[in-house]
Write a structure and sequence with these properties.
The structure is a homotetramer. Chain A is mainly α. Chain A has eleven helices and no strands.
Chain lengths: ~210, ~210, ~210, ~210
């Protein structure tokens, strides 16, 4: 076990390619989200009323797309921030990053599910569970970088309460997942508000 | 409110990753546009006449694809230009950029809608409204960069009438959206001509 | 007209972002090609014989995918080569590059068409026409770079017969497009052989 | 033949663009894998039980997605490692890299096949054959780089048994492909365990 941890602590990888790979994955995720918005099928191709109604029925999909886009962009921004603190990368970080990206790339599935069945509590709460899990994976990546790879000149400015603050994310999403079983609109609102907590990465301690 | 604006004014992000993320999104958008071109289904797989007719019916989709491709490339070029004026990035810029990219990545949807229902005024005018909105988002990003993040050596060369000139874009698209209710071909022509106004980014004032 | 040409001759863009955007488009095109390979539908999910037959029927799609992949990689390599000769980029180059990429991103459509209807001469010859047109667009980009943007130290090594040699590409694809009407296998072979002519970019004159 | 090999030995390409293109392809592959997870169709949109059952039936697809994601990330990491050893690139390397990426981009197809027909030995064993072939292509790329393009200062640290060790990869996948005909779960387990052998790239000899 120690040997495995040691093995993951090895390697001195260039951050540039890790960022390029991650940016590619983030860019594709946000762009794929729109593929769930299918053009409505009309019986009469020229009918304005029918098309208007078809677009109106897409509203839950539009909202799901909007929420997911904001959440993924928030992850991208915080990912950008946390990688800028690292002096280099080791294999442990690469794998934590890969697993984090794996579940980021999973986001279009619960988004489509929630957009397709906005009235189904299981579909709506699954969205929150996936987002909570993603945030936990991000916190794991963040902890690995802060404790093992942090640039020495930035170590002093580290916020000791960062972990506690970060946990507000998964708790917010899980609250939304729970609320969905009581009231679907409350679940939606909870999902829309949670990413706003992390709309900007935390500032270093001494600047507050 | 001031505190929120202050928070968005913080951060000192590397432009490189923002450009990489944006380039990824632009590249995927333009490439996804072609996915709307489905191979026509034939009753007789070897029939040249039937395939020719099937391709002919794809013409509105080809035209929509062409116009959208040119528009997105134009946005990419102007995005490239405006980011080259910035000395660094703050959180406000990152979020304006993300929201701009969000609605860029939305472009395949109205493109598909217009390609599928070229005879439906609502479908055609929606395309113009989305493009006008995209241009407004671009103008917001441009203003933020010019007023807050502009490299000092470039500030003097700024065109004071840039905002007024930029508004020609949304007005052109909205004119097309309005014309579509009167005459569909006029709407199409308006959409095809508007991006030509911005085919090259504005030159700095002193070179004109 | 001169004024328009002058406008396209302006601008001094960073090659890095043009390459990043182009690499993104190339990477997505080659990866999207595989989406045309659909899992065959089976009546009996566990039947080895039925699945074997289903995969066998995919053979024309596999071959189309293979040929298109090699052709797009060849374009990528020659694009890489020609951009390495440029000292900077102007708006003319950016637009020639964008239009070239537009028709590169179109490649999945004729590839799918040829894979779906390998016995239809129109489908097969369309593939050749699109590839010939792509090569012509590449030659236009190449000429613009060589005549206007070439690094001075590389100008002397330019091959004066490059244009004539490059035309072998469109002629090969058009020959395949013509042959398809006589014999489909001959057309296929012609398509497979033509990219091999350009499997490596031309060496500078003095090294031959 | 010698002349052809000589031609492939020419060229002095920038590694940066090859990495950017490769990263783009890797990023798209891992993200496309999720597109195979389709939202289950429900008769009653609000039924929790029906949705739960639909998700349960997706389990083989989830597992296929998970295994493929880990395998492609492992390839990415080893690709990153091996390219960091190269001092420059020649045409031979570019083509070996392109052919390697071609079959990487093919991965979503056998993944979808195995996810759709987890009870079909042909579908499951095909997955192993494709992965074995991918590893062989990677070994070819690795050998070309180590023997022709290796940075001189790293040549001494090369592991003489690297080739033998690398062959464990294809053998593991082929074992899984063979086992699938005897017992499907054994095949799955073999596929899941093989990438773990290469979860970190080999360390240089002197550090062991």
């Amino acid at each position: 076990m120690t040997r495995l941890l040691q093995r993951f602590g090895q390697g001195h990888l260039r951050l540039g390619r890790i960022e390029a790979f991650s940016d590619g994955v983030f860019a594709i995720i946000v762009t794929l989200l729109v593929l769930e918005l299918h053009v409505p099928e009309l019986h009469s191709a020229g009918s304005v009323a029918e098309l208007g109604e078809g677009l109106w029925h897409l509203l839950p999909k539009f909202l799901s797309w909007l929420i997911s886009f904001i959440i993924v962009c928030k992850f991208w921004l915080n990912h950008h921030h946390i990688l800028s603190l690292a002096s280099h990368a080791d294999y442990g970080m690469v794998w934590l990053n890969s697993i984090f990206l794996m579940f980021q790339s999973f986001v279009p599935f619960p988004t489509a599910l929630m957009g397709e069945y906005p009235g189904n509590p299981l579909a709506v709460s699954l969205f929150g569970v996936v987002m909570a899990f993603n945030t936990v994976l991000f916190i794991a990546l963040q902890s690995w970088i802060l404790h093992r790879l942090c640039k020495p000149e930035l170590a002093a400015a580290r916020d000791p309460h960062l972990l506690a603050k970060s946990l507000a994310g998964p708790l917010g999403y899980l609250a939304g997942a729970g609320l969905a079983w009581v009231s679907l609109p409350l679940g939606f609102i909870c999902y829309a508000l949670t990413p706003l907590l992390f709309i900007t990465p935390p500032e270093p301690r001494n600047s507050e």
